[in-house]
Amino acid sequence: MDSATLLSGVALGYLVCWLAYVIHAAGRWVWLGRVATALLVLSWTLNTAGMGLRWRESYELGFGRIPLTNQYESMVLFAWTVGLLYIVTELRYRNKALGAFVIPIPFLSLGLGSLVFEAEIRPLVPALQSNWLTAHVITCFMGYAAFAVSFGVSLLYLLGDRARQASFLKYLPPLSVLDEINYRAIAVGFPFLSVGIVTGAIWADAAWGSYWSWDPKETWSLITWLVYAAFLHARFVRGWSGRRTAILSAAGFGAMLFTYVGVNFLLSGLHSYA
Amino acid sequence: MGPRSEPNSEMTLWKGLRSVRLTLVLFLILASAAILGTLIPQNLSPEEYLRIYGAVAATLLRILGLTDLYHSAWFTGLMGVLVLNLIACSVHRFPRTWKAVRTPQRPLTDGLWRSLPIRRILQGGGGVEETSRAFSAELSRRGWAFREERREGDIHLLAQKGRYGRLGVFVTHLGVVVVLSGGLVGSLFGFNGFVKLHEGEGVAVAQDQRAGAGRELGFEVRCDAFRVAHYPDGTPREFRSDLSFLEGGKVLFQGPVRVNHPVEYKGFVFYQSSYGSTVRVTLEAANSSGAGTRLVQTEVGQTVPLAPGLGIQAARYEADAGGRGPAILLAVARPGQHPVLGWLLKNEPSQPFDGWTLTFLEASERPWTGLQVKRDPGVWVVWVGSGLVLLGCTMAFFMPHRAMWIRLRKTGEGTVCHVAASAPKGRPALEKTVEGFCLSLAQKARMHIGEGVQDDG
Hints:
The complex is a heterodimer of chains A (274) and B (457).
Chain A: H1 3-26, H2 30-60, H3 71-93, H4 99-102, H5 104-116, H6 132-165, H7 175-207, H8 216-236, H9 243-266
Chain B: H1 6-17, H2 20-39, H3 46-63, H4 73-102, H5 110-115, E1 118-124, H6 128-141, E2 145-151, E3 154-161, H7 168-189, E4 191-198, E5 202-208, E6 214-230, E7 236-247, E8 250-258, E9 263-265, E10 268-287, E11 292-299, E12 303-307, E13 310-318, E14 327-333, E15 340-345, E16 356-375, H8 379-398, E17 402-410, E18 415-422, H9 427-444, E19 447-449
Antiparallel strand pairs in B: 1-18, 1-19, 2-3, 3-17, 4-5, 4-16, 5-6, 6-7, 7-8, 9-10, 10-11, 10-16, 12-13, 13-14, 14-15, 17-18
């Protein structure tokens, strides 16, 4: 089996996980939650295997390169990082309600990636042949994934109150815990995004001759950084919490999504790989 | 305003400048402006703006500085205000934080106990000294820095974690200011230019990308060879220029420049940026009126006069035109008229035009390499600032400050312990930590957790 087929299968795995989390959150079957987690760990492991397989396939094609270099591969990586950070969050906070809101993200990323984008493995163009590639891409996507988790938490927070009254979402954690997870996720995502921007700047200085040239990708990463910086200042200095920070966090995710996907398809610039 | 109100207005200005509300507003404005700059194409020629937006809107864009937004005076000004705001906030807050970091933790009093958010009471039958040893061992095991203080028969254990994490925010702010000053240094003292070199050609002057003027490099840079390597499927694998740097005719340094691998010489960094080739073609022009034949040499893209009022140009060159060998697209023009275009295969005479018959004899290609030449004394400042930002973020997020107060007091039956804790960030997490701490002590020192969690004050 080739990696592209395996990874489309993993997308279906994430879909099943998502449904399991949703039914678990709405119903009363405790066992279904365990099934959802087990399936998620399995899907994520296969996601890892798919990336490893793709890496090996590139060596068989004769040029060998890390699978982090185009839109398709980045969407596989995004699913992988979100899966990883979600599993860590679930283990740490012992709550599965969040799964219903976060797991659709790896499903959509991998599913759309498989359906829409070219999965062909091509050799690296000169601009991508750099030692900074791995560090830059991984740190950016760890940041993106942390923001995706915080977005799921924010949705749960904003819908939570109403859902509790309708006695949907049986296992909803207390809102203060959601607020805490939201901050924790951003406290992980913000430094990762910062490292991603700095490694990107160092790389751009070597490849494009300028560490910052207001390329749309650079500019939008700065916009995302500013929104989350606003979140942190609003929370710690002005004492915002709850609904208002949840809304800011969701706005940050919107900016992040535009940085990641929107810039490539709606704006033109140097950063045309993914 | 009279002179008397001046100190007052200075105070208001200072208060406004150090307010975090201003920071949030600036974030919002800067983010919106940055978005605008990605929606309006930047740095196009005036003609293109005219074509896209029409006369009125194009003029408006230019007046508002929206065609080079990120370098406009108002955008730079906003960044300046952000820097002032950042400095003001930090200067205002630093002394207090520094004092808090330096001041030793005070022992737990009844008043302090009541003010702390997390409180537990443990009771056990052991003596004070014995219990204190158990507590100390548990604190060390869990990585708390603590000291012991004895007062009026009580033993106080004063523990902290992430004491210096509170300085992280100042380190981050300093880093941002350093990064922006690096950018300023670069834009004031930096140089960004371009050289185009044919193989074997050398220059000592680089063209400024913005001003268009030339700049003496103080040495000569020569391109010895330029190569493009391909993968088997035809995609480019490498662009490479072999450069020599000469002073007084002597080669002092040699090195290849590739994409991602620039070369630095005497503070100027050379980047592989573009490539192409200059084609020289030789044509034979024969005039039927008997003026004889002559050879015409020209570069692709240049117009040469053939006769008064008649110009010819080799507009394009194809090394292999549809499998029929080399060909040029020839344009013949009289002033004020549309040029007549026609493909000319090698060694095949053209149709007569105004009595002239043209034959394409030969073409020679000379590859050239385009190198970006940059000097930016601010780059290192930017890297140092970036390092500070990352260090500061790490301190602020991964060394959260936590303090724990433990008071051991002898009672008739043994020892009663008051455990209290506070954390400005992440209180639920600390609550769990304290819970775990108390539970493992309850086990190890055979104590039970009392009901003293509710407000007894």
